[in-house]
Amino acid sequence: MIKIYNTLTRKKEEFKPITPGQVKIYVCGPTVYNYIHIGNARSFIAFDTIRRYFEYRGYAVDFVTNFTDVDDKIIRAAKEAAITPEALADRFIEAYFEDTKALNIEPATLNPRVMDHIPDIIEFIQDLIDKGFAYEASGDVYYRTRKFPDYGKLSDQSIDELEVGASQRTGTEQAIKEDPLDFALWKSAKEGEISWEAPWGAGRPGWHIECSVMATKHLGETIDIHGGGQDLEFPHHENEIAQSEAKTGKTFANYWMHNGYVTIGDDNEKMSKSLGNFITAHELIQQVDPQVIRFLMATTQYRRPIRYSETVLQEAAVNLQRLHTAKENATFRLAQASSTLATDEADLATLLVLEERFVAEMDDDFNCANGITVVYELAKWLNTYSEREAVSEAVLTSALEKFAAWLQVFGIVFAAAGYLDEEVDQLIAERNQARKDKNFARSDEIRDLLKEQGIILEDTPQGTRWRREA
Ligand SMILES: [Zn+2]
Known about the structure:
By secondary structure, the protein is α/β, with parallel strands linked by helices. It has 3 domains: 3-307, HUPs (Rossmann fold); 311-409, Anticodon-binding domain of a subclass of class I aminoacyl-tRNA synthetases (Four Helix Bundle (Hemerythrin (Met), subunit A), Up-down Bundle); 422-468. It is 50% helix and 15% strand. The protein has helices at 38-56, 72-81, 85-102, 118-130, 159-167, 172-176, 207-219, 233-248, 273-277, 281-287, 290-298, 310-335, 345-363, 368-386, 393-409, 421-436, 440-452; strands at 3-6, 11-14, 22-27, 60-65, 134-137, 140-143, 183-188, 203-205, 223-229, 253-259, 262-264, 306-308, 455-460, 463-468. The strands form 5 sheets. Strands 4-3-9-10 form a 4-stranded parallel beta sheet. Strand 5 (134-137) and strand 6 form a beta hairpin. Helix 2 (72-81) packs across helix 3 (85-102), helix 13 (345-363) runs antiparallel to helix 14 and helix 13 runs parallel beside helix 15 (393-409). The longest helix has 26 residues, at 310-335. The structure holds zinc ion (ZN). Zinc ion binds next to helix 8.
């Protein structure tokens, strides 16, 4: 039974899906005006790990995450780059896919974009106006916050407390609103800015409305889980609830999950200059093995803050290496498992106990920090077992399968061991035959296959030579 800390109730609750065996998750995606920063990367890795664990537990996961491609920051950056906001968004959406791939984040079921949903957004806003939850003012449309009785339920604030804070704000927007708490659903077009026609005049959507529209459109009026960074809890997610529930009269999301922050450097360590420069994940993965970043972020419980520093990175690299070594040891031993123990029940039982513990830790609000501890224990067990004089193939195979499946939950996949020399010679012979037969597709395929394993071929008049990449 999976338990989830629900921000809405401030309690751990048993997860009950709307449809048995299925999970519908919506996670707020990036504003694509730049490369994703490490805080974004943490959020996407956290929810990717959660998604993978659901899959490990047999659920079918529908995972939707949006791209905010209409926004002040995008308009400003596009102007600076002298390109359209659309072209700028395209550029950073492409970069998003490259960077998240490097971090082994599974592609979402769907990545809806705001620009593709303008008619849906206009329709949604019109419905809120018709229901009395929104009003037009000088070409803008605002949400009538006080009309929604549950406003503040997610961030646990009373409407009067919020009113005090909001009333201190000033500006033209404040002057045209009915109430300082009201927030924009539609912003009238400014000179030279991208805009779309709407019943209230040309303009563009406010930020909060897109997630209500895209989540309900693609996942349904009630979804299982809505996720995002802690910084989105208020006002973004509070506003998403107000918009969605006012429109549908139904609960928007049954579980609200928020991941912790990333801070840079630790108290005892002088901030290194190189670290200070790595604000985007894009730059970071050029310098640090993406698998180490993934491991560090995936093995921290998602609600905890991550203090990102060289020390924690080094620790993560060492731990990852230990796990890799354990896998290599066991794989090597399995290859030479000539003798088989008569009975292996006791060892299989040990593995089963470890598996139960792994599941119990992860079921407890995706406690990855405790979950990875069980993986370390399995690694230790694999090392010890691999040194036994007689081993059981069934036990080793089962242990390696569990090991790989658990690491997969954290997004870690160790590449298969490289080719042995004789295997390389064999493939080269096959390639030479293919070339003789003018089967160049096959000969290129073999070259690429070897290249993936770091083996470089060199065709000389005397024949094909090969070497391993340094
Ligand atoms: Zn959102």
